[in-house]
Amino acid sequence: MQHVREEAALAGGPAEDAATDRARSLRSVRGPRSPEECAALPTMAENVMTPSPHPIPIAVVGPRAFRALHLVRDLVLAFPPAARLVSGRAAGVDVVGEITMCQRRMPVSLYPVKVRANASRETFAKAAFARNTLVADEAAEADVFLNAESRGTRDTLHKLRALGKVVRVHDEPPPAEHALLFHTAPHPHTRQAPRGYRGPSTFDITRGSGGDAGSPFAPSEKLLREAQRRIYKEGPEAFNWYAPIYISEMRQSWRIHRPAWDALLARNHFVAVCYCIQRTCCHRGVFAQLLVKAGVRVGRRVIDGGEVTLW
Ligand SMILES: [Zn+2]
Predict the structure, then answer these.
(1) Domain that holds residue 202
(2) Tell me, what's the pLDDT at 18?
(3) Distance of alpha carbon 25 from alpha carbon 125, whole angstroms
(4) Which CATH number characterizes residue 99's domain?
(5) What's the predicted TM-score (pTM) here?
(6) With the CA atoms of 98, 102, 105 and 107 taken in that order, what torsion angle do they form, in degrees rounded to the nearest 10?
(7) 285 Cα to the center of ligand 1, angstroms
(8) How far away, in angstroms, is 210 Cα from ligand 1 center?
(9) How many domains does the chain have?
(10) Most buried residue, 161, 179, 206, 266, by most Cβ within 10 Å?
(11) Co-location of 143 and 197 in the same domain
């Protein structure tokens, strides 16, 4: 990769031994996802690996606002089968790494910041910096993505270096390489199996709960009611009737709600969610294709990261 700086490894020695001991005693908050759990996750067919019995813990860390998250995805898609991801589970770099690992059915250790919803900035920052210490301790290697807004990431980087870990630094590329990366997933409150996506950057595009932000991308009430009636009568075949009408509604939405489309295209990452189980029989699959086309139209690079179901 063009913007990578690899740092010298200081493998072994007392710092690493102490880190390994600490990592063993401080079990991950989420815990490594077991091979059985990962195997149960629906995933993209590509790049699926058999988890190694002794995976190498690799941290992937970076800021929320990194503007080229497809580079994180590309990196994790190329990880060796013996890798285990260590992640802080924040929006942006962290969660893109996590989603991509789970799409490959590879294990992850998660260290989310756990504070009350109404916690002060100071409390959150303190917890986040403590979390960074755990990530640096557990990782044997790390890929660190950096841009100008990376205070927390620089803290983790400093800790990784102090522990003598192998660190590869990836600088944010120039604007010509910036992109929107998005995923799709079942809604976090779906009552249908599999469980929905409960991570950061959720973007609800349903008529029922999408609100003002999501409604420009949701089917109309009228279309939904008729689709439900037809699904009851015809089963999945009804989607062939539904999809072209949804597309024509979205053409209209592009004209009426252009600022909402532009705002979405300007983001660096989101996970579009709907209550349907399968992306292939849901408007989110059609929406994914339309968004990529909209990107071509306005000259914005848009990458469909695929469906994810992991939490
Ligand atoms: Zn749906």
Answers:
(1) 180-307
(2) 36
(3) 24
(4) 3.40.50
(5) 0.82
(6) 40
(7) 8
(8) 12
(9) 2
(10) 206
(11) no
